[in-house]
Amino acid sequence: MFQSFEETSTPQFGRQRVEALRAALVALEVDGFLVPRADEFQGEYVPASAERLSWLTGFTGSAGIALVTRKQVIVFVDGRYVTQLAEQVDADVFTGGDLVGEPPHLWLERYGAKGFRLGIDPWLHTGAEVRKLESALQTLGGALVLLDHNPLDLLWTDRPAAPLGRVRIQPLDQAGLLARDKLAAMTADIAKAGADAVILTDPSSIAWTFNIRGSDVPHTPHPLARAIIHKDGRAELFLDKRKAGIEEEAYLTQLAALKAPSSFDEDITALASAGARVMIDPDLAPFALAELIRTGGGKVIEAIDPARLPRARKNATELEGSARAHLQDGAAMVEFLAWLDGTQPGTVTEIAAVKKLEACRTVVGERMQNPLRDVSFASISGAGEHAAIMHYRVTTKSDLTIADGSMFLIDSGGQYVNGTTDITRTVAIGTVPEEQRHFFTLVLKGMIAISTARFPVGTRGVDLDPLARIALWKAGADYAHGTGHGVGSYLSVHEGPQRISRASMQEILPGMILSNEPGYYRPGAFGIRIENLIHVRDASPVEGGDLQMLGFETLTFCPIDRRLVMPALLTEEELAWLNDYHAETREKLLPLISDEAVRVWLEAATAPLAR
Questions:
Q1: Is residue 419 part of a domain?
Q2: Does 172 share its domain with 119?
Q3: What count of other Cβ atoms lies within 10 Å of the Cβ of residue 193?
Q4: How far apart (Å, rounded) are the C-alpha atoms in residues 538 and 559?
Q5: How far apart are CA 145 and CA 270, in angstroms?
Q6: Which residue, of 262, 277, 303, is where some domain finishes?
């Protein structure tokens, strides 16, 4: 198995660990301290050695930050994790906060004491975050204190060692562009910014730029490394050589000077002391890096990571590879869903479902000679009320039997050398109440609205987001997560800067891959999400139109449970889309399935619906 079902949350230690941290804060003469989920690389998925927030609080979600003060601890999470937070932390010690509506800087501005001194580890916060905190503390007459060490790390006596995951070369027939050509293109961005060099701090950008993949963090092929790219094309890659074999080292030394990560600070200081103008992304780079440059005598030039948009805009080879990966993954999903449908209702558990799905992906990968390298995240396998927990992680302690008469939500994905997949299907187990079918159909309407959207060049994620919600809004309902996130090419399943959400100001550009996943969740009762991946392409011209338009092409092919659809709630166009989608799913996946019983199931699952 690529994932574990053991309970990793340790809320029983929360009180004593908070008390020990508070004692350390007194000695440091600060009134509070921030403990983010992010690590020194600002990644969503972090190695065990960087699970500071989980160690302190017991909360294991992938987004959050704790503000520890002398009197209280607020753990800020977004809407996906409200229920999970309540279940995982000691409510007598920790209070929930709103990461989106009232993040730490706004909380401090509104409730912080006069003269409040906030300590932070400057390697764990970006420049953009620090500016917000400084502004908030200024209104209080307080101060932001950059600590020279992380007091939590001194208390964490059994902290795991830093990872040494091996790196692999991503071949040209999957990457589509030579690393040397990517580096050359980057020098033009450096020159345009008036800089002498750029520092890449995002592991996704390192992996994409150098055409390598790593294994330092769970489910995401990131190498934890940094790089300096100079305007003349020279490069230094700060990667522990123990992560590279002979072939990988020989390959990388043709592109960059390989240096130990421990020499990074020294090299940055030397670069700065020569008066270099250094380009960093304030939304991705740790604030400590900017401080090293400034205090060393260099000049910081803030600009977007030059790999970020090219990485997000997939080239033809990457898009073709992703399409193949999704067909393979779709075949595995069909085998899984056919198996689940053939079981007796009330006999399969959430964990058993995850194990079966991973086995299907493994077997199909072997058959198609494109092995499953990993799951792209720990599968969300939610039965009944567990489906209402948006990022539910099943454990041996929480494992439920999928009951007759309920809905089952499975959100999962695979990492293949030619692409990253992410798919959610909500299915009926037996006969489901009509109210649940009603909300399922409203969610489906939102998913179809995004799938069929046409929009002018310059449209942002925030502009598209309401399309997925309008049917739910009309019914007095909504969902507390974004409609879509970016997805990498055998990289992170959550890739920026593209998103479809209320907060996304990024322009949607051709080549970007996004998820399309509206949902509805009723705490303690049921949850629904339907998710396909889509990519942005030029739309065919409209007769009489005068604007260049874009649209989406669907990558994910897998049946949507017809038993949960109420055709009377769909427009003619929506029903036609669903029937066309199922016809295409049948056409694309039948050749990939050899088991006759599964083929029969797929034929029935994709049969046309009528009013």
A1: yes
A2: no
A3: 17
A4: 26
A5: 25
A6: 303
Provide the CATH number for the domain around residue 461. 3.90.230.10
pLDDT digits (tens, 9 = 90+) for 28-76: 999 999 999 999 999 888 999 999 999 999 999 889 999 999 999 999 9
Residues 6+ apart with CB under 8 A from 515: 422, 484, 485, 487, 531, 532, 533, 534
DSSP for residue 446: H
Question: Which of 201, 146, 177 has the alpha carbon at shortest distance from 318?
Answer: 177
Q: How many domains does the chain have?
A: 3
Cα-based distances in Å from 190 to 135, 150, 183, 195, 258: 30, 33, 11, 5, 21
The C-alpha angle with vertex 420 and arms to 414 and 424, in degrees rounded to 5, equals: 60
Using DSSP's 3-state secondary structure scheme, residue 610 falls into coil
pLDDT per residue as tens digits for the range 312-321: 999 999 999 9
H/E run at residue 527 = strand 526-529
Asked whether residue 318 falls in the same domain as residue 297, the answer is: no
In this prediction, residues 555-563 reach a mean pLDDT of 98
Q: Return mean pLDDT, the chain.
A: 96
Tell me the β-bridge partners of 75.
66, 96
Inter-residue contact 403 to 526 (CB < 8 Å): no
> Looking at the structure, do residues 369 and 296 belong to the same domain, yes or no?
no
Distances 480 to 55, 78, 412, 506 between C-alpha atoms, Å: 26, 8, 19, 20
Containing structural domain, residue 352: 313-602
**Mean pLDDT across 334-360:** 97
130 and 185 assigned to the same domain: no
Cβ atoms of 382 and 350 within 8 Å: the answer is: yes
Q: Are residues 79 and 176 in the same domain?
A: no
Q: Residues 366, 483: one domain? A: yes
Do residues 36 and 53 touch, judged by C-beta distance below 8 A? yes
Question: What is the mean pLDDT of the segment spanning 239-266?
Answer: 97
Query: What CATH number does residue 185 fall under?
Result: 3.40.350.10
**Rounded Cα–Cα distance for residues 140 and 138 (Å):** 5
Say whether both 299 and 362 belong to one domain. no
Pairing mode of beta strands 117-120, 143-146: parallel
pLDDT of residue 286: 96
Asked if 122 and 32 sit in the same domain, the reply is: yes
Q: What are 495's strand-pairing partners?
A: 486
Distance, in Å, from the CA atom of 540 to the CA atom of 555, rounded to the nearest integer, reads 18
DSSP class of 63: S
In a domain, 430, yes or no: yes
The answer to whether position 610 is within a domain reads no
